[in-house]
Design a protein that fits this description.
The complex is a heterodimer. Chain A is of the alpha+beta class. Chain A has 4 domains: 86 residues, Uridine Diphospho-n-acetylenolpyruvylglucosamine Reductase, domain 2, CATH 3.30.43; 119 residues, Uridine Diphospho-n-acetylenolpyruvylglucosamine Reductase, domain 3 (2-Layer Sandwich), CATH 3.30.465; 105 residues, Alpha-Beta Plaits, CATH 3.30.70; 81 residues, Alpha-Beta Plaits, CATH 3.30.70. Chain A contains 16 helices and 18 strands. Chain A is globular. The relative contact order of chain A is 0.12. Chain B is α/β, with parallel strands linked by helices. Among the domains of chain B are: 94 residues, Orthogonal Bundle (Fumarate Reductase Iron-sulfur Protein, Chain B, domain 2), CATH 1.10.1060; 117 residues, 3-Layer(aba) Sandwich (Rossmann fold). Chain B has 23 helices and 9 strands. The longest helix of chain B has 18 residues. Chain B starts with 10 loop residues before the first helix and ends with a helix. The chains are: A alpha+beta, B alpha/beta. The interface between A and B is medium-sized, with 31 and 24 residues. Bound molecules: flavin-adenine dinucleotide and iron/sulfur cluster (2 copies).
Chain lengths: 459, 419
């Protein structure tokens, strides 16, 4: 229980209506997409960096942990108040402060929803490419904190590639800015990049300066079915080797296709053991040629069928196959663990084979899909938690998947971060020395371990 | 006897919520007030906590659960199709059981089963006053929709009529042999506020040679009572409507009100009892008209030189059932209409059964967005398929100082048809 005195201080800072200790509110801010739950003691809804600064100073003086929270759509528990304390929700900080069309730069508050920002810049003919599947509801602050990625990242890069400056409140309550609205800048350490992907442990992001691109004139979508995952993977390398970088190169493995076929009436031929959804964007006249060129390049690589969308509606229909995956998987098994390992692009088939072997060994279905262009594989371990022993099996399988990815020079997480879900596995990927280096940074900046404790590293 | 599900019965659906947060992109209440308790995910978490005995219906829980339009937008956008609108309605029934109905619409349950009052509707020359209001039949959903706080809030008043539709229409209109026979479920909106829409309905069906029966003892579908948590009222209304609508054999039951359609199809469909048989027979008027070849018949009419620009608002209760194309197709087929699509045509108008009564501020915020989209579409008229939406849309437009009029598609169809 938090003392009434603390609640009074918080109320003085952000206003009474923006502080709550009611059980109903604590319950509503206790979870994220991991479905794990930790009750905070109090939820605050600040509006400005100044308010957050005061909150952090008080929290340090009183030794109360603070947990930044965007939309709570995280897959690794980054926003969960694991020790109790203060959940600091950015929901009120949702203004787009400026879109500077002349310099292709925008400034936003952290609570702005990704898609709303994208729509706002697209109205002006501008483009913010990072497109996590959660873009309709996740916040830009959460995207920066997790360095979110999505299908378009193969061509354009991940969130951090578009962040050129930040305003943050440090764990001890100072307001500082990093980087700025210039395309170049090398004065001092690159703190902007340090904060990107720091999962809310090194500072609370209060403003984000974003680099924009001109909006491509058009895009074209094609869906290609292959008789093997190798054909699909070779196609990815061949396309890029021929100096075409598609906007997206999404893949689904054979088991995923089986699920879709089982659960929907979408037409997918039996012979298809892998699917690539390829999208190209740019000038309209240029796209036809690119699609033709891609078709020619991949034709010898075991293509079963190629579908090219002529209209946005047809493109939507092609994406429907990919979008139906989540629901289809659930029909096969009620619970799933969704990991997002990343391996060098060329190692995707080898990784899929490893996963298949692991699936066989433990007798639990594992299906793979994801971003082939980045080697980012969403490994979905499908179980029924109600069946005794399944959860333990899944855990063991996941550990083997991680080890498999690391052995191929990969990483445990391409997009979702560590949070609490992957913290136990950190020693598998990061050496003790490197880990110490990171912890030293955290310790220096947050000596009282006030800001988002218990995340990334198990203390 | 019809029987609604209890909150307990939704345990499995509640567990299907994976807390992904996708509903944050779809919930109109959340967009008006960005707090987790306002979104489907929060309401499900609270319902779950209630089921687990972790929390009682304390004030904040009841407040969050009252902050729901039951529009189903969250469910339509949910990867797991968790029916939050049903879960919240069940939670409200449980609140009503535990705390009495007062929070959500006082005194309704007590007056069920007095359909005679229906005919006692005051003939006060169409002049609306709270006096007239008091004379609305006690079992009309409009009573729940417009209790005292509504009338005191300075909004565009609902256009009550002194000539309710069902008092003045025939019981049966014979069509051409070989064509289907339908029962017209008028709903309270058409009956007490927009009788002209009812007339237009009859004209359209006559045009196509359809036989129409209008059971006079039909009553409110019960949706406002669902919203208020008045479970017993809903169940009694469902039984009475079942009796009324099955007395004569008909091929279909038609609605020209999205909410009534959802009431018959979804709410009754999910209930135990005979009333669940009504759902499969129920059709939206425009779905039916197109099946009967309306578009082809309209194509024969000469296209007007001067056309009115019209946009369409998707009532949640049709959109979430997947009925989005048919009303648009009818509008596009009308010779005097130039159809334009507005941005976010599918976002809720903000009425939400009893919601707008008790949460007028949020309701206005949601409506203001709609009014803005209507304005920027450039349309002169916004047409829809639900009397409740028409009322709310007009109120929102008026507040925004707009000039557009909200109409029922049937009124436009009426203009287009000969005779
Ligand atoms: C259906 C679904 C699909 C997804 N798809 C993708 C995908 O394709 N790619 C991808 O990368 N991720 C994906 N995610 C994961 C998640 O959406 C992203 O990690 C997203 O960036 C989280 O944003 P959020 O606003 O929900 O943040 P939260 O979950 O609230 O928080 C995430 C982390 O950011 C920190 N944080 C939030 N705001 C701030 C701030 N202002 N300052 C400092 N720290 C802050 C939190 O402390 C926490 O550590 C998906 C999630 C779901 C549920
Ligand atoms: S979208 Fe559905 S599953 Fe996701 S949080 Fe909302 S209700 Fe739950
Ligand atoms: S039914 Fe409508 S108002 Fe209620 S939670 Fe769902 S989207 Fe929100």
């Amino acid at each position: 229980m938090i003392e009434a005195r603390i609640i009074r201080i918080l109320s003085d800072i952000v206003g009474k209506e923006n502080v709550t200790t009611q059980k109903a509110d604590l319950l509503c801010y206790s979870y994220d997409a991991t479905q794990l739950r930790f009750l905070p003691d109090v939820v605050v809804h600040p509006l400005t960096a100044e308010e957050i600064s005061l909150i952090m100073k008080m929290a340090n003086a009183e030794k109360i942990p603070v947990f930044p929270r965007g939309a709570g759509s995280g897959f690794t528990g980054g926003s969960l108040p694991v020790t109790g304390g203060i959940v600091l929700a950015t929901e009120r900080m949702n203004r787009i402060i400026e879109i500077d069309s002349e310099n292709l730069v925008a400034t936003v508050e952290p609570g702005v929803v990704t898609e709303q920002f994208q729509q706002a810049v697209e109205k002006l003919g501008l483009f913010y490419p990072p497109d996590p599947a959660s873009l309709k509801f996740s916040t830009l602050g959460g995207n920066v904190a997790e360095c979110a990625g999505g299908p378009r990242c193969v061509k354009y890069g991940v969130t951090k590639d578009f962040i050129i400056g930040l305003q943050i409140v440090t764990p001890q309550g100072d307001i500082i800015t990093t980087g700025g609205p210039t395309m170049k800048g090398v004065v001092g350490y690159d703190l902007t990049k340090l904060i990107c992907g720091s999962e809310g442990t090194l500072g609370i992001i209060t403003r984000i300066i974003i680099k924009l691109l001109p909006l491509p004139e058009a895009k074209q979508t094609m869906l290609v079915m292959f008789d093997s995952i190798d054909g699909a993977a070779q196609s990815v390398s061949a396309i890029i080797g021929n100096k075409i970088i598609p906007t997206t190169l999404e893949f689904m493995d054979g088991r995923t296709i089986d699920c879709v076929r089982q659960a929907t009436d979408l037409q997918v031929p039996e012979a298809a053991r892998a699917v690539l959804i390829i999208e190209v964007d740019g000038d309209r006249e240029f796209l036809e040629k690119q699609v033709q060129k891609i078709t020619d390049i991949i034709q010898p690589l075991g293509v079963v069928e190629t579908r090219v969308a002529k209209t946005p509606a047809e493109s939507e229909a092609l994406w429907q196959i990919r979008r139906s995956v989540s629901a289809s998987l659930r029909k096969v098994n009620p619970d799933k663990f969704n990991e997002d390992i990343c391996v060098p692009r060329s190692k995707v088939p080898e990784m899929i084979r490893k996963v298949d072997a692991i699936s066989e060994k433990y007798g639990i279905p594992i299906v793979n899909f994801g971003h082939a262009g980045d080697g980012n594989i969403h490994v979905n371990v499908m179980i029924d938690k109600k069946v005794p022993g399944e959860a333990e099996k899944a855990e063991k399988a996941i550990e083997e998947v991680f080890k498999g990815a690391l052995a191929l020079g990969g990483t445990m997480s391409g997009e979702h971060g560590v949070g609490i879900a992957k913290a136990p596995y950190i020693p598998l990927e990061i050496t003790e020395k490197a880990s110490d280096y990171m912890k030293a940074i955290k310790k220096a900046l947050d000596p009282n371990n006030i800001l988002n404790p218990g995340k990334i590293f198990l203390d | 006897m019809a029987k609604l599900k209890d909150l307990e019965d939704y345990r499995e659906e509640i567990e299907q919520c994976v807390k992904c947060g996708a509903c944050r992109a779809h919930c109109p209440v959340f967009s008006a007030e960005r707090r987790e308790g306002r979104v489907a995910r929060g309401k499900i978490a609270l319902s779950q906590a209630v089921l687990e005995g972790e929390i009682d219906f304390e004030a904040k829980v009841m407040e969050d659960l009252s902050q729901c339009l039951l529009c189903g937008s969250c469910c339509a956008g949910c990867p797991n199709k968790v029916p939050t609108e049903e879960i919240v309605a069940a939670a409200r029934r449980r609140i009503a059981e535990e705390k009495g109905l007062s929070t959500f619409g006082k005194g309704v349950a007590a007056v069920i089963g007095r359909p005679k009052l229906m005919n006692a509707l005051a003939k006060t020359g169409g002049k609306l006053s709270s006096l007239l209001f008091k004379k609305l039949p006690d079992n009309s959903g409009l009573r729940l929709r417009f209790p005292a706080p509504y009338l005191e809030s300075g909004r565009t008043l609902p256009p009550f009529t002194d000539k309710p539709f069902r008092e003045n229409c025939p019981d049966r209109i014979e069509g051409e042999p070989g064509k289907p026979t339908i029962a017209f479920f008028t709903g309270c909106g058409i009956n007490y506020m927009y009788p002209a829409v009812g007339e237009a309905f009859l004209k359209a069906l006559k045009f196509l040679g359809i036989t129409v029966v209008i059971p006079k003892d039909q009553v409110c579908c019960g949706l406002p009572a669902v919203s208020a948590g008045a479970g017993k009222t809903v169940e009694a209304l469902a039984d009475q409507n079942y009796a009324a609508l099955t007395r004569e054999p008909v091929d279909y039951i038609l609605t020209a009100c999205a909410s009534c359609n959802a009431g018959l199809v979804k709410v009754y469909g999910d209930m135990e009892g005979e009333c669940s048989a009504l759902g499969p027979k129920t059709r939206d008027i425009f779905v039916f008209l197109l099946e009967q070849g309306l578009a082809e018949r309209l194509a024969e009419l000469p296209r007007a030189a001067e056309r009115t620009t019209v946009t369409y608002h998707d009532p949640c209760h049709l959109r979430t059932q997947g009925i989005t194309q048919e009303p648009r197709d009818v509008l596009k087929a009308l010779p005097q209409v130039e159809y334009v699509e507005m941005e976010n045509a599918g976002s809720c108008c903000g009425l939400g059964g009893t919601y707008s009564v008790y949460h007028y501020d949020n309701s206005k915020k949601i409506g203001a967005k709609k009014a803005g989209n209507i304005e920027s579409s450039g349309a002169e008229l916004v047409a829809t398929d639900c009397p409740g939406c028409i009322m709310q849309l007009q109120d929102s437009i008026n507040h925004a100082g707009g000039k557009q009029r909200a109409v029922h598609i049937l009124e436009l169809l009426n203009e287009a048809l000969p005779g």
